[in-house]
Design goal:
- By secondary structure, the protein is of the alpha+beta class.
- The protein is globular and about 45 Å long.
- It has 2 helices and 7 strands.
């Protein structure tokens, strides 16, 4: 079994400013971190511990902009394990320019899932004052 350390749901908004106003101001979600610049910059909000619920039935696949982001301790180990279980790998593990190691798969309905490893020397692991 892949040992998931963290997760987040990724939303690709049609109007990023409107979406930031909704999640940050209207819903009042606290900002965890921001990255990039310009109107399409990234904003990550605290959303509890993060969950994925499967329930009911749909006649259509999930929204085309939906992505799942799952943090794992070792992407290469997850890659080997998932391959052994017959999971189709959309893209094998790659160290991204931003320093994370990412592997892409899809669920049975085609929802993209990114498995991410945060290397020990990555800034995400740095906690000022700790």
């Amino acid at each position: 079994m892949v040992h998931v350390l963290g997760s987040r749901v990724l939303i690709r908004p049609t109007d990023p400013d409107r979406s930031r106003a909704f999640y940050g101001e209207q819903l009042g979600l606290a900002v965890y971190r921001e990255f990039g610049t310009g109107p399409e910059r990234g904003t990550v909000y605290f959303l509890g511990g993060g969950f994925l619920e499967l329930s009911g039935r749909s006649d259509a696949a999930s929204a085309p902009g939906l992505r799942l982001w799952l943090q794992v301790a070792d992407v290469m180990a997850a890659h080997e394990e998932l391959l052994a279980k017959g999971v189709g790998i959309t893209r094998p593990p790659v160290k991204e320019p931003w320093g994370l190691i990412e592997m892409w798969i899809t669920d049975p309905d085609g929802t993209p899932i990114v498995l991410v490893e945060t290397p020990a020397d990555h800034p995400l692991r740095y906690r000022p004052g700790i």
